[in-house]
Each structure stands twice: as structure tokens, then as C-alpha cells.
Design brief:
heterodimer, A: 225 residues, Rossmann fold, 9-stranded mixed β-sheet, 11 strands, globular, B: 79 residues, alpha+beta, Mth169, Chain: A
Chain lengths: 225, 79
Amino acid sequence: MRAAVIQFPGSNCDRDMAVGFDRAAGHNSRTQMVWHKESSLPDGLDIVGIPGGFSFGDYLRCGAIGARSPIMRSVIDFANKGGHVVGICNGFQVLTESGLLPGVLMRNSNLKFICKDVDLKIETANSPFTNAHKPGDIVTYPVAHHDGNYTADADTLRTLHGDDRIAYTYVDNPNGSVDDIAGILSENRRVLGMMPHPERLNDPVLGGNDGSKLFESIAGALVSA
Amino acid sequence: MKARVHVTLKNGVLDPQGAAVKHSLGTLGFEGVDRVRQGKIIELELSETDTAKAEALVKDMCEKLLANTVIEDYSVEIL
């Protein structure tokens, strides 16, 4: 599995994401870090990660400026050609702002920055990101966001439900997201955006390793592909 | 030429910041505030001198960056 992680000014989960990819891929895997001002991605990539953080200080809207960075044109091309992309937290916001995923992440309904571990339900195992699970499995990932309140218009929500594109839901909704949505998939199921942070709970020394399942799912799907 | 863009949440989109401001106004004793909606103003100085062209340009900017039309409306004023 060849992975790259995009770095924006203000990204702060980029290294954690790279460790997640490297551990799951094993032997000599070296995730490549790609600065946002680059205009092209390295050749031969299997997956691109858009990390958490506060790209461009969340100016204008969370993820809005990052989504228009030069590298994002290449990421959009990569996704449109069937490449895998995962965006976590600010990465999810970048993916909605760039149009790779529908909907938008609004300010949390209680207006508070929420930083805690939350339980998530796996809604579908039919994706390269969740295939190490069974639907209904519960995992614990941390959330750390001010703008995680997912919403979309009624047609989009019907499509997401109808096409089994909701990957994760909150067991106890912390932020007001419509239908408890915590993560969604693209139409071809190869782009995942999620607010919770699997890469932050990816080692027992950090208090748990539920997060490793996401990276193992990806590695399993992309190695056998 | 100057342009001013107003960006507001669409009607029907919950505005928790507006609700918090309304609540706070009530705490201060301001009565009769039925609704508060919070938005933002973006001012631009443009080299374009033709009003119609400037307006079209700024509307394009709104569609591509300044507003997220999933949840926001925008209006453009040429000053």
C-alpha cells in the first residue's frame, strides 16, 4: 500500500495519520508527506489521507481554503479516477468543501468545542475502510472539533441512506449531526470522510487501539486489490 | 471599485450562534427580539471599473469560495 498525507498550514494530525498507514501496511512502508502547495501527487499512490487540524486557521469556513489549495486539484483528479481518499476531522471538512463528499459540517449545536472519546456504530462493512468490521459493531474513537455538525439537504440524505453510504453514526450524538452521522462514503465508496479520529487511538499506550481497525481495513483492501 | 458581500445562513438552517446571541440579549434585558441570525460581511476592493462586470465577478467568487451554497445565501453590493 502506497499512501500519502497532505499537509496544510495548521494540520496537526498528519504524522498520526502517517503512522496509522505505516503500521497497517507493515514492512518498510513510508507514507509520503505532501505539502499543499505541490501541484501533483507522487506516482503510484493507493490512498491519500487528508488529516485533522485547523488548516488555514479555519478562516472563512473550516476546510474552505484548504479545499482550494493547489494539491487539491490533483486529489480530486485522483479520486475521480478511482483513487482512495480518507479525510478525518478537518480532512472531512476539506472533502465536503472540495465537493468530493456531499453536505457540510456546521458549528456544533451546543457551540462548544468537544474533545472526548465517543462510541460509534459501524453502519456498513461494505467499504475498504470498514470491512474489518460487522455492521452494528461499536468502536471508540476520540472527537476533537468545533464544527462537526453534519447536515445535507433531504435528497442527499435519502441517497446516503438508500445507497448504504453512511459509514459511522454516533451512539450518543455529541454535536447535533443530522441522523447521528459521523462518517460518510462517496458514491464509488472509495472516499471516506469522518469527524472522529481513529489515528489518535491507534496504540494501547494512547489508551486504546480501536483506530487500528480502520487502517487495517484499508491495508487489507488495497493489498488484495 | 468596492464590493460588499453579505453571507448568511439559509432560512431553515439552524443558526446556533444566532440563538446564543438572542439568548444573551434577553439576559441583558433587551425584550422583543424574536429572532437573531448571524452572518458575515466580506469587503473587496476590485480593479474592475464596470459595475456589471464587477458584480458578475464577485458572484462567481461567492459560488466558488466566499459562500458555501449548501447552507449559505449571499448577496453582492457594488459600492
